[in-house]
Amino acid sequence: MKFIPTTLLLSSALLLGTSLSSLAQNTPQPDTPNAAAPAAQPKLPDPLSAPAAQAEKPVDPSHVMAVVDGKDVTAGDLDAMANDIDPGLARLPDQQRRITVLKIYVDMKTLSDSALKDGLDKTPEYEKRMAIMRDNVLQQLYFKNSIVDKITDDDVKARYEKEIAGLPKEQEVRARHILVKTKKEAEDIIKSLNKGAKFDDLAKAKSSEKSAATTGGDVGYFSRGQMVKPFEDAAFALKVGEYTKTPVESPFGWHVIKVEDRREKQPPAFADVKDGIRNMIARERYVKLIGELRGKMDVKYPDENVAKLMQQPDSDTGDLPGEQSDEEDQ
Questions:
Q1: Can you give the residue ranges of the PpiC domain (predicted)?
Q2: How far is 116 from 113, CA to CA, in rounded Å?
Q3: Which is higher by pLDDT, 8 or 330?
Q4: Of 139, 145, 198, which is closest to residue 322 (Cα–Cα)?
Q5: Which pLDDT belongs to residue 311?
Q6: Using an 8 Å Cβ cutoff, are 287 and 313 in contact?
Q7: CATH of 171-264 given 1.10.10.10, 3.10.50.40, 1.10.1040.10, 1.20.1050.10
Q8: Is residue 325 predicted with pLDDT exceeding 60?
């Protein structure tokens, strides 16, 4: 966990610049033939396993949590620090989060006071790093004031309507499957289905997929590109109520598949993607703003190679001011 300068309240949980449909894709479930594995999640203390997860009484932001070097540190101060230290701390219960931040702050002050006694604030390295930090904080504040704070709820809603209107019409199916290790097992299951056995009952009894015991092999709705190709092709070739008459092989084993429903793919709910859309708008406005302001800067490149490289188009997937990349967070 790192202490960083003041950051913006822009979440980077969603990949900025991705399409609206990709923002709402469900995380693949284990033991189902999804084409991709879920991304690793940040490892933070589990709020549900912590003693502080029990009901807490609200704490006045002015409540003094500590006195450090003669200065009060309030609950509100710690709440403000938490996002700068790690936005993921917001997942913790209030008291646990504040105590975590307070410990970090006390340790930081202990070391910084020792550094002052050693005169490190008078060194050239300190001056250079403080200048960089100053510019970093100022650019974040300017970004927040000029862009983030000016994005309205109406802006986000209008962009959502525009995006869903442009989504291609796409079919999705809802399917069940029974996963077994051998082709012979799958053929025997198909014989049982031909004799009138219920698909979900067989899935609960025969499938090697652990979740089938409760789901009856239901994998929910999916569109093309979300499952491994043999599974996908077989499912989309079936009509509602039909099941595969021959076993389907995939890297996971042998499947018997039944289609329960077909429908036009539903657009993602506004509530599920509004934060991502807000970030898309912020990125677009940032690119426009920085392009306008760069033209006013007095910048020279004595090295011709550097000058050529600086003329190359910018990537539109980098971090916005105040964001940290996933690699930096690890």
A1: 170-261
A2: 5
A3: 330
A4: 139
A5: 85
A6: no
A7: 3.10.50.40
A8: no
